[in-house]
Design goal:
Length: 71
């Protein structure tokens, strides 16, 4: 189980982007989110899974679009 829960990811979209998932995807184009520490990583394809995080070094980075599809 990842540390970044679906609830937390949903709250990020609600608070930072007023619930606009398309705005989040536009803002974070070619970036991913680490599901362990929450860090945003550059150079991540939309459908990426288990990329290595630049902050915590865990294989837990998913593309933003993929992470949103998992909600």
């Amino acid at each position: 189980m990842s540390k970044i829960s679906n609830k937390i990811l949903t709250e990020i979209v609600e608070v930072e982007f007023n619930g606009d998932y398309f705005a989040m995807v536009e803002e974070y184009h070619n970036q991913g989110i680490c599901l362990e520490c929450g860090a945003i990583n550059d150079g991540v394809e939309p459908d990426a899974q288990k990329y290595t995080c630049c902050e915590c070094d865990q294989n837990a980075v998913s593309g933003i679009e993929f992470a949103l599809l998992e909600l």
